Amino acid sequence: MKQTHDNLRPIRWENDQLYLLDQRKLPFSREELVLHHAHEVAAAIRDMVVRGAPAIGIAAAYGAVLAVRQAYTTQGQHWREHIETDFAQLSASRPTAVNLNWALARMREALATIPPNTDPVPTVLQLADQIHHRDITDNYAMGEFGADILGEGACILTHCNTGSLATGGYGTALGVIRTAYRRGQVSVIFADETRPWLQGSRLTAWELQQDGIPVTLLPDSAAGSLMQQKKINWVIVGADRITANGDVANKIGTYSLAVLAKYHGVRFMVVAPSSTIDWQRDSGADIPIEQRAAEEVTTLAGQTIAPAGIGAWNPVFDVTPVNLIDAIVTERGAVLEPCRGGLRQLFPHQN
Ligand code: MRU
Q: Which residues bind substrate per the record (predicted)?
C-alpha cells in the first residue's frame, strides 16, 4: 500500500515504453524522456537524467529489457549473441553505485533460465518490474526501522538526494525522514545544497516541498557551524556502495559530515537496501570512485564561474569509514555500531 508523503516516481514502464523523469531539469521543469534503446539508457545514467544508486539499478534493469527486446526482434532465436554490447555499455555507465551491476547480474541470471525457442522478453520485463517494486517496499521497511531508532524531537541534516528521485520511490535516508515526519518525530530538517550538482537544493528541497514537508537549505560549508550551534542531533544519508566491513561510499562531502558529527556528538545514520552492499569488497579502499568533468565545478547553470584554464578535482563520492557510523539501516533491520561487525549477522548467507 502506498505511504503518505509519497508522490513522485522517477522511472515508469508503461505501454511497453521506458519513461525517465529528466532530473537535470528539476526543479524548473518537469519533463519525461521516452527511451527506446539500451544505449540511450546508458547515456541517461551517465549524463544524470536518472541518478541515485537504487534508481540507476532499476533503470539499468529496464535498459536490459530494451537490449533483449531489440535483439529478439531483430535476431530471433540468436538474440543471446547480440546483447553483450548493450550490457557492457549499461555496466560501464557509472562506476561507484554497485546497484547498477547488481541489477544487471540479476537480469543475466534470469536470462540463463530461458529455454531455447522462447520469447525472453516477458521473463526479463517481469524481473525488472519486480526489482522496481521491491525497491519501493524495501524503502517503506527501512523507513520504519530507521524511524524506530531516531527517537522524538529529531533535528536532522541530510546530504545529496536520497528520496523518491534516487530510488524506485519513497527513498532511503529520505524515506526514514518521511516516515519519522509522518509519525511526528521530526522537529527540523536541514538539507545541504550538495555542490556541484546541487542534488540537495534542486531535488531534495523540491521533493520535500511536493510532499508538504518543511526543509531548510544550507551551503555545504555551513554544516560545521550547524553542528557547533547544536541545531541537529542526527545526520542521515544514503549510500552508493557499502563494503563487507561496513565502510560507506556516498556523495562527496559525506565523509566530512561524519568527521564533524563525531567531533560534535551528533549521531550518524546510513540507510541503504541490500542491493547496495558489495560483499566481494572487504573495505572502502577497494571502491572505485567516479571522477567527473572539471566543468561541473568551473561552471554553474551553464555560466563559467572560474578563470579560464583552471583545472578542478571533481571526485563525486567519498568513503566514510565504518567507525564513524552509528547505524546502518537495511530492509532486514538496523545495525547499531556496525564497526562491531553486525552487518553480516543480518545477511548470514552472504560469503
Ligand atoms: O551522483 P548521484 O546523484 O547519483 O549521487 C547520489 C548519492 O550519492 C546518493 O546519496 C546515493 O545514491 C544514495 S540514493 C538512495
A: 51-53, 94, 199, 250-251
